[in-house]
Amino acid sequence: MKDQVTDHIQDQIAEVQHAAETWSPQRSLTWAFETFGNRVAISSAFGVEGMVLIDMASRVRKDFRLFTIDTEFLFPETYNLMDRIEEKYSITIEKIYSVLSPEEQERAHGAALWTRDPDRCCNLRKVEPLRRKLGELSAWITSIRRDQTSVRSIARRVEWDTKFGLVKVNPIIDWSSKQVWRYIHDHDVPYNALHNQDYPSIGCTHCTRAVRPGEDPRAGRWPGFAKTECGLHIIEPVPDSSAVVASKAAKFGN
């Protein structure tokens, strides 16, 4: 039964996906809120793109849901921004944590796991907490942009998230960094003070540094590793339904 429901939702998303590519960010948010109600939430790490999306959402719907994955290794400036967001937009940020405290993680996996196996650290502190949170929702909204990483370059404005099994909406997927900053300044949107100190992308304290002149904007993330994604936005292909049907038929000898 669950597979049938999932297939039906995927079919519906496929129907709107092409048209959605022409939608404005505001229309994308309106569609998400009207379609999923309280079962959709914005996910944000409060980078400058996330702040644009939060401000836009506040103009579309006052009682929108907003959550963040608090790794417990964030910068003081990030925590300060969270307080400002809650005050300015009169919302409560839903904070999600790893099942392991930093101390428990150290006992189980050794000290400074991020220096030895950053993928495992991200999985423990980001991916698995997100998976638990998304299990409560029918859709999530993100602020990713196609030109941020090669992985994100194939993302759609509205898509089925195969990895987590729900709908994913990316309202500013086709925006440039210039458009993002123009919105920030035009609408006086608060942002992380680290952006003024050569931190274009901000994550955990242990795995984020300032970017040097001429470097890629994400060069400051996981320096020393061939890593540009924490794993939250890895896009897995949607299975070909005809191939699935053929496989099942072969399995049962039909």
Give your account of this protein's structure.
The protein is an alpha/beta fold and 254 residues long. The chain has a single domain (2-247), classed as HUPs (Rossmann fold, 3-Layer(aba) Sandwich). It is 43% helix and 9% strand. It contains 9 helices and 6 strands; from the N terminus they run H-H-E-H-E-H-E-H-H-H-E-E-E-H-H. It has helices at 2-20, 25-36, 48-60, 76-89, 102-109, 113-116, 118-134, 177-186, 241-251, and strands at residues 40-43, 66-69, 94-96, 139-141, 158-161, 166-169. It has a 6-stranded mixed β-sheet, sandwiched between helices. Strand 2, helix 4 and strand 3 (94-96) form a beta-alpha-beta unit.
Core attributes:
254 residues, 6-stranded mixed sheet, disordered C terminus, Rossmann fold
**What top-tier CATH class fits best?**
Alpha Beta
CATH architecture descriptor name: 3-Layer(aba) Sandwich
Q: Which shape, going by the Cα principal axes?
A: globular
Tally of DSSP β-strands:
6
* Poorly predicted tracts of residues: 240-254
